[in-house]
Amino acid sequence: MCYFVMSTPSEEVLLADWIDVTFLAYSDSSSSRQIYTHRKETIVHYQAYPPTQLRSAYKREDESSKELPFFKLASRVLSVSCSPSASSLRLNGVKNNTNTSIRKLSLAISTKRYLGLSSSLNRIASSSSSTSSLTPALRLSQISRAFSGTANREMPPIYDKPTTEKYDYIVIGGGSGGSGTARRAVSYGKKVAVVEATPYLGGTCVNVGCVPKKIMWHAADLQDKITNHAHGYKFTGIENAKFDWASFKPQRDAYIRRLNGIYANNFDKEGVEFHRGFGRLVARDKVEVTKPDGQTYVLTADNICIAVGGQPTIPSEEEIPGASLGIDSDGFFDLPEQPRRVAIVGAGYIAIELAGIFNALGTETHLLIRGDTVLRTFDPTIQEALTPWMEKTGVHLHKRTHVTKVEGEKGGPLTVHTDNGEKVEVDVLLWAIGRHASTKGLGLEELGVKLDKKGDVVVDEYQNSSVPGITAIGDVQGKWLLTPVAIAAGRRLSNRLFGPEKFKNDKLSYEDIPTVVFSHPTIGTVGLTEPEARAKYGDDAIKIYKSSFRALYFSMVDEEHKEPTVYKLICAGPEERVVGVHIIGLGSDEVMQGFAVAVKMGARKQDLDDTVAIHPTSGEELVTLR
Question: Where are the alpha helices (DSSP H) in 518-620?
Answer without folding.
Answer: 530-537, 588-600, 605-609
